[in-house]
Design goal:
This protein has about 100 residues and is an all-alpha fold. About 65% of the residues lie in helices and about 0% in strands. The chain contains 5 helices and no strands.
């Protein structure tokens, strides 16, 4: 199975379980922060987690949106979220292309 096929399969499984909720994402970010602070996982593990999330967002994005620039923007936002530099707000507030306050 190719990495892309594995990612598509994971996407399907996550969708079936319903793990798309913002609360789940907030919990994952907090869990990663806590595990990193406790030295249970290292920075490279956090990077792999963020890469997996960015890959999933890219797979789920409409074809017109999915581009290297889009993935970079997703990764930049994930870096800020995991660093505690960006609030987890409503989906509309975090929507790509939305005006920031």
């Amino acid at each position: 199975m190719t990495p892309y096929d594995k990612q598509k399969r994971l996407h399907w499984e996550l969708t079936n379980v319903g793990l798309r909720a913002q609360a789940t994402a907030a919990g994952l970010v907090q869990l990663c922060v806590e595990l990193r602070c406790a030295n249970v996982i290292d920075d490279s593990a956090v990077e792999r987690i963020k890469d997996a999330i960015a890959d999933e967002v890219l797979v789920a994005a409409p074809r017109v949106t999915a581009s290297p620039g889009f993935r970079r923007e997703v990764k930049d936002r994930l870096d800020k979220l995991f660093a505690g530099e960006q609030e987890l707000g409503s989906a509309e507030a975090l929507a790509f292309g939305a005006q920031q306050d």
